[in-house]
Amino acid sequence: MIQIRNLAYTAKTDEGEREILRGIDLDIPDGRLIVVTGPNGGGKSTLARLVAGIAKPSGGSIVFDGRDITGASITERARLGIGFAFQQPVRFKGLKVMDLLAIAAGRTLAKSEACDYLVSVGLCANDYLQREVNSSLSGGELKRIEIATVIAKASKVSIFDEPEAGIDLWSFQSLIDTFRNMRRTIANSSIVIISHQERILAIADEIVVIKDGLIARHGPKAAILPSLIGTSMAAPGCPKFGRGDVPVITEGKIHA
Amino acid sequence: MLSEIQKKMLRELTGRSEFGDGAFNIRANGCSAGRHSTKGIRIEPKPNGAGLDVYIEPGLRDDNVSIPVVMTESGLKEEVYNDFHVGEGAVVTITAGCGIHNCGREDSQHDGIHRFFIGRGSRVKYVEKHIGEGDGAGRRILNPVTEVYQEEDSVLEMEMTQIRGVDETERTTKAALKAGARLAVRERLMTGARERAVSHYAVTLDGAGAVADIVSRGVARGDSVQTLDLKIVGNAPCRGHTECDSIIMDRGHIVAVPTLEAADIDAQLVHEAAIGKIAGDQLDKLMSLGLTAAEAEARIIEGFLS
Q1: Are B154 and B127 spatial neighbours (Cβ–Cβ below 8 Å)?
Q2: What would the pLDDT profile of A90-107 be if each residue is shown by its tens digit?
Q3: Which of A52, A74, A92 sits opposite B282 (nearest CB)?
């Protein structure tokens, strides 16, 4: 359970200080899948980065399972059980996909285990395990590997910052299956996904809309999603997603 | 009789604790501490005693030879001239390198001058490690000179690693390639404290279809200084690529000097160079997987130099 109280973040820019988050109150209970959406620039990614410890808040508090982690380092939070998939995956010269997965899992991995993580993001282990996580990989490949590291980490709370960016048709459906699978396999784990994608919003237990640095709306999917359909906060995605045998959700209905 | 320190350094240099029936020469504190030739690889001391001639039979398949050097005596300075004569069509791995353990007050210095005469159609892998250790006030100095002469269609892969403890080094590597010859160099260099490292490359592509790919990765920590001077000359229709990639830390200082020289309309030469600190998002990512900042930094460097 994460309890966020009055969380604020002020960024320093060339034009002076700018308030990105202006007092967020949010509970992330165990076992829930929460999708955070809202207009671009509203503060969604900042919220995710503050929870992961990558940015430091200018005010407010974050409590994880009863422990105040507002001042805790990224490492401490990771070890307590917070996982974070970066929106822009990081490249490493010399570190291989297998290395990253093993660091994430915190132990040496058998090839078959590493393979399972990669398959869940639509990559073949034979092609990728020994590849360096460098610029020879495409943006989409890096994105999938990024997600695989968070799956391998098996955290109590996993936060994904726009995981669908760069993900193609096949693995998009696989990605949704992966989120469902994570909920089944990690007891009481909760998942927070920053996304505009209607199909990801459709698997949420709760939806949070962040706008202008504040929570504009928060409630069960059934109460929030219908009003978002057709807006930029619940984009249907590329029309090509409608082709083939992948189910597509429009206006809350699933079409095979 | 080798000391325990010498044995440990030999293991680090060669990855072996026994040399058995293979071809090898061990030089310890300026003297031969063991030598063995095989049917396919003959090791002979030079007449003046200042080095070795290593003859590799034409057509020899998948064999190897090791010629490590260890120095544990403070104040020792030596120049050693080793020549490798690789016969046509041979496939061989050559392991060399020098470990200096200096606990004394005087400088220890080893300058190895290696010449490679690589026969037509042969494939050679050369692995060289340099290490320095010991807590004496005397400096550990290594100035290797490597000259390579590649005949047609020969292939040479060089892995050269110096990752700790050498106070001063000036490395000079020269190569001349005939038609169809290929040279791939992977240099890994880490310096710390007040160490100084200079690495010069001058590769000449003289024959049609010659290819050189030289990649140098370095990490400069503490107050150390690295200078990387990479030059390729294309005198024929050829391809040359140099890459100089460095991580700067602490108060390190790095100079990268690329030079490309083309004397043929069909010479394709490329240089890439980058110097930068470890990116903050790289540390953030590994910390978000549970490593401490120090562990993350170590993994990034380990990967970079792998």
Answers
A1: no
A2: 999 989 999 999 999 999
A3: A92
CATH homologous superfamily of A2-255 = P-loop containing nucleotide triphosphate hydrolases (3.40.50.300)
- B281 to A86: CB separation less than 8 angstroms, yes or no: yes
A-to-B residue pairs, Cβ atoms closer than 8 angstroms: 64
DSSP code of residue B165 = -
Domain coverage including residue B210: 4-304
Mutate: best of B163, B247, B285, partner A, most A CBs <10 A:
B285
- pLDDT for B98: 85
Crossing angle of helices A139-153/A169-185, nearest 10°? 10
Q: Given the structure tokens 């792998």, which residue do they identify?
A: B306
The residues near A13 (Cβ < 8 Å, ≥ 6 apart) are: none
Q: Which of A85-94, A237-246, B24-33 has the highest mean pLDDT?
A: A85-94
- Whether A163 has a pLDDT exceeding 80, the answer reads yes
| Residues of chain B falling short of pLDDT 50 | none
Residue A7: phi and psi, rounded to 5, are -75, 130
Give how far A67 is from chain B: nearest CA, Å. 18
Bridge partners of residue B113, in order along the sequence: B81, B145
Residues 6+ positions from B185 with CB-CB distance below 8 Å: B157, B158, B160, B173, B201, B212, B213, B214, B215, B216
Q: What is the CA radius of gyration of chain A?
A: 18
**Are residues A81 and A157 in contact, defined by beta-carbon separation less than 8 angstroms?**
yes
Spans of all domains in chain A = 2-255
